[in-house]
Amino acid sequence: MKPLILFDINGTLIKRDSRTDLPYEYAVNELLSIENGLQGVNTSARSDVDVMMEILQKHNVEYTEALWEQFFKLYIKQLKEFKPSDAWRENGTAVSFVTKLAEKNYPLALITGELGIGAEYKLKKLGIWQHFATGGFGEDGLRRFEIADTAVKCAKERFNREFDKIFLIGDTVLDIKIARHIGASVISITTGSNTREELQELSPDYIIDDFTELSMDLFE
C-alpha cells in the first residue's frame, strides 16, 4: 500500500525569497492604505490568517469577517496580476520529483499556511497543482497543527482509506513538529527559513539539500 506524501509549499516546492509573498503584501498595502505591510512580520510556517491578525494588531485595526473578505478579493486580484511574473519559481528539482511520484500514483497532498487560492496559483505556475488531490490550507485553521489535522482527514476521505505510513516534506522546524504530531516520517529540506543545523537539532528522519537525493525506494 503506497504511503501518503504531504508537502509544504513555500521553501519546499516554491523557492522562498523577497518575491514569494508580494501578492499578499500588495493586497495588505491596498487594504490598509500603507506601504511595506509585511515589514517586521515573519510569515514562515504560519497561516495567512494568523499573519493578517498580526498585521492588523500592529496597525490597531480590528479583525472582522467583512475585512477579511475585502482582503481576500484584493488578494485574488494581486494573484492574477502576478500570474505572468516570475514571483513563483521552482525550488531546486521539486517539479520533476513531484511528477515522478504522481506518475507512480503516490497519493499526494499539501500542508500549508497558504490560502487554497494562493496555493493553486503558485503550483499551477509550476505545472504541478493537478498532482495534489487535496490538502490542508490557511483557511482550515489558525495554526499549522490544525491545518495538518485537516490535511490528513481530507486525504483519508479523498483516497478512501487509512494510511499505514505518512511522509511529510518541509523546510522548517515546525514541519518536523507537525510530522511528529500526525505520526509521519519527516523529510527536511535545507532550502527554507531554517538552517541545516536548526533542522538537525530536532532529528528529522531524513535531511536533504535537493530532491535528487531522495530515492523512490524510500516510499516503497
Beta-strand percentage range: 5-15%
Shape: globular
Roughly what is the average pLDDT, rounded to an integer? 96
Main β-sheet description: 6 strands, parallel
Helix coverage percent of residues?
40-55%
Please report the distance between the alpha carbons of the first and last residues. Answer: 8 Å
Helices, by number, come to 8
Using only C-alpha atoms, the radius of gyration works out to: 17 Å
Total of domains: 2
How does this model look, in words?
It is a single chain. The protein is α/β, with parallel strands linked by helices and 220 residues long. The protein folds into two domains: 4-17 and 88-219, 3-Layer(aba) Sandwich (Rossmann fold); 22-82. The protein is 42% helix and 11% strand. Strands 3-2-1-4-5-6 form a six-stranded parallel beta sheet. Helix 8 (196-200) links the parallel strand 5 and strand 6.
Strand and helix map with partners:
Elements: E1 4-7, H1 22-32, H2 48-58, H3 65-82, H4 94-103, E2 108-111, H5 116-126, E3 134-136, H6 144-159, E4 166-170, H7 173-182, E5 185-189, H8 196-200, E6 206-208
Parallel strand pairs: 1-2, 1-4, 2-3, 4-5, 5-6
Helix pairs in contact: 1-3, 6-7
